Amino acid sequence: QVQLVESGGGSVQAGGSLRLTCVGSGGTYSKRGVAWFRQAPGKEREGVAAVNSDGTTSYADSVTGRFAISKDGAQNTMYLQMNSLKPEDTGMYYCAATVSCRTVPPQFRLVDSQYAYWGQGTQVTVSS
What is the CA radius of gyration of the chain? Predict the structure, then answer.
């Protein structure tokens, strides 16, 4: 059974940094696409960053240049390095993974319906 567990969230001031970690179990992740999504109170869940099974990355415009996604397939671990955080980055952050050997077309990599497995989330709060 595939399971994803996020950690690393917390409260920081604007301009600060956090590194989120997602550890997967129940399968191998070297051939899966993985992504980070977030949801702020009263808003819909949005894709933040994704790394495809071939290693290519995608980012939402709002985080480009500030966030970096990476994946260690051998360790079944995914990361989201978040720098220059802003209050609008506040929300619950979720990691997600595709089924094995799935290649997500570039235009859909930040669409939540492309991902079959989800973690429980970790809260990020950025104060001004």
Answer: 13
